[in-house]
Amino acid sequence: MQIRLSVIAVLLAWPVLGHPAPAWSDASAPVSAPAASAIAAILDHDAAAPDAQTLRAFYAARNSAPAWSNPAQVAALTAAVAGAADQGLDFAMPKAGGDAAARDVALTRVALAYATALAKGRVAIDQLEQDWAISAPSFDAASGLGTALTHDLGAWYAGLAPQHEYYRRLVAALARYRPIATAGGWAQVPRGEPLKLGMTDERVRAARKRLEAEGDLAPLPPPPAPQAAPTAEGPIQHVAAITAAAPAAAAPDPATLFDGAMETAVRRFQRRYGIAVDGALGPRTLAAMNVPVRARIAQIELNLERWRTLPHDLGPSYMMVNVPAETLSVVADGNPVISMKVVVGDPGHPTPVVRTAMVAVQLNPTWTIPASIVTKEILPKAKRDRSYLAKNDIEFTPGRGWQQMPGPKNPLGQLKFETPNRFDVYLHDTPSRLAFDRYFRAQSHGCVRLENATELAGYVLRDLGWDEQLITEAVTAGGRTRIDLPRARRIWILYATSFVDEDGTVEFRDDLYGRDARLTDALAAIRAEERQTGL
């Protein structure tokens, strides 16, 4: 995005509202009655605009005094808005022209909208998604802007976006991918049979260029320069001409050879994109490679927006489930200490986005079966097979409903982690281990199955004297035990389809539940509405 009004133009051509500009914008300074009346008339005319309430609050606090009489403040706003694209946002300064009051309101409108976008996002995702239970941060743009105009406007804007590492790394990734798009992006790799180690194919050349574009593969060194053949003298020259050997067959072009370096690069690409790692360029890998760079940039921008709508302070210690990545991470005092694979909800039973807390661990838990599963799955099976309930240790208890008793067939496995929330979604063990060997692990009814439940239990119960061995012994003994945690442990269940690892590796995942698509549509609707209001 280009800024339509340069700082220099602002400083040279800024219209003064009826009198020389004060040193700083000051709401307590005497207000020019014509200027205040003109601003009030504009606010009345735009009373139905989406930002009307915030605009009125801002100008009411300053008795309708113009906010942008000082060119230095306009320059600071211009500089701040110039960085919008770096945050994955699309904002521009208003065009020059118009009367002074209209210009003042237009600048305020941009200033408030950009600040709000940084501080809490542009879309109220908890209203867009039915299973999104985390509200956007509270933010008073009018009050904040009024204070910033009397202090340091640039510093205020710099501190509005999330400051945590997940957001900052994505901003850096966006800066890395934008030049790729500017340079023309990456070319498509032609379709064909899977390419594997040892094969020679012209399509390998295109695949190499594609892998080089994201840094998965280093470019081949340039071929050595041809050397002139030595010149023989005297009678030897005649003999050499007679006995010269036939020219050797040309060696294959190294750029078309699927060599070991190429296989390693494909494996790295597959890990970054959540694809089964086999080192071969098959249909799934080829499809991911051929997504245009601008689509990947848009994916990064969507995830930046998503982070802005979440609380900016995640806390020093927490657990985080990233649903599209199908992973759980444990962070203690800002440092990752545990990471494991998880199984999440399938597309028909999406795992919700929720902030919750772990309060207890159950050993050998019973499973209280949700009514929807009872109706759609359990009762039809019991009707077909009268021994089904007994064979699966399922009982009906008045007041508790249908329950499956502890044992090898219980889908909760040996451990359940209580995490109260309105969706009744929790973390638990599982007797089925095969899913963790797969790269697509969206297979549950919404709850989160853990690859290493005993490791997590040992970690959260260590202050009570438990370790993994004691937990295993207690589970083996067969008793049903509930252990309250001495303090609740924060859990974030989030949805990030693009993220950056600690070492700077940029990763992408599929949009499992269509949340990216819905967010894209919502942002497009907002932009269309803003075009009507001149933003």
Write the layout of secondary structure elements.
Layout: H1 7-13, H2 33-45, H3 52-60, H4 71-82, H5 100-120, H6 125-128, H7 141-148, H8 153-158, H9 165-182, H10 202-213, H11 235-243, H12 260-272, H13 283-289, H14 293-309, E1 318-322, E2 327-332, E3 335-345, E4 354-363, E5 367-368, H15 371-384, H16 388-391, E6 394-397, E7 401-404, E8 415-418, E9 427-428, E10 442-444, E11 448-450, H17 453-460, H18 468-477, E12 481-494, E13 498-500, E14 506-508, H19 515-533
Parallel strand pairs: 1-12, 3-10, 9-11
Antiparallel strand pairs: 1-2, 2-3, 3-11, 4-8, 4-12, 5-7, 6-7, 8-9, 13-14
Helix pairs in contact: 1-4, 2-5, 3-7, 9-14, 17-18
Per DSSP, what share of the residues sits in E-state strands of 2 or more residues?
5-15%
Largest sheet, in brief, is:
8 strands, mixed, barrel
Rg, nearest Å: 31 Å
The helix-and-strand class reads: alpha+beta
Architecture of the domain at 314-510, CATH level 2? Beta Barrel
CATH superfamily of the domain at 314-510: L,D-transpeptidase catalytic domain-like
Strand order of the largest sheet: 1-2-3-11-9-8-4-12
Number of strands: 14
- What name does CATH use for the topology of the domain at 314-510? L,D-transpeptidase catalytic domain-like
Overall, the morphology is globular
Average pLDDT level = 90
Number of helices: 19
Which CATH class of the domain at 314-510 is shown?
Mainly Beta
The low-confidence runs, each spanning 5 or more residues with pLDDT under 50, are 1-29, 238-242
Distance between the termini: 14 Å
The percentage helix is 25-40%
